[in-house]
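Annotated sample (chain length 155).
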Amino acid sequence: MIAGTFSLVTLVVSVNQFILSQEFSPAGDFRDRLEGVLQFRKDIEDATSVPAAPTAPSRLLTLLATAIHHRANTLATALDDHDDDGSQTRAVRFANSVADSTEQIHESLDQTEETAFYTLTTAIKYDDVWQLYAAKHLRNDVPSLSEETIQNSMI
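Output written by the structure step:
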């Protein structure tokens, strides 16, 4: 019994040291990580036009989803008077798909607890890779879009 306890204590201490060794890194590494976080928050503030990004993960994701939803609606309304009906239809379908995805984020965050785990799970489920691909494809395929439309929307 005593030998088993010593083995268990040794194993626990070793695992703790391994985990804590990641936290005991040089001060320059922490400075770089902090600067990265601050730059990320600044980018969010610039993209969403808010004075300060929220600190709670769920509120931050909600802010991003709201900004994306707004930009999708801006794109759809900007293309109401577009000359090319095929391009307009594709762009409006894309904008509606993005708006639906952001509404799912809002619904998911409203139904769950406001913990970092549920927020991360919701963010992982969001299909941003497809949206980036579709936005780039739309931008390259519809050259008649104005710079103002491109800047004010998501593409």
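Annotation: The two ends are 65 Å apart (CA to CA).
Annotation: The helical segments are 2-23, 27-48, 57-78, 85-111, 116-125, 128-141, 147-152.
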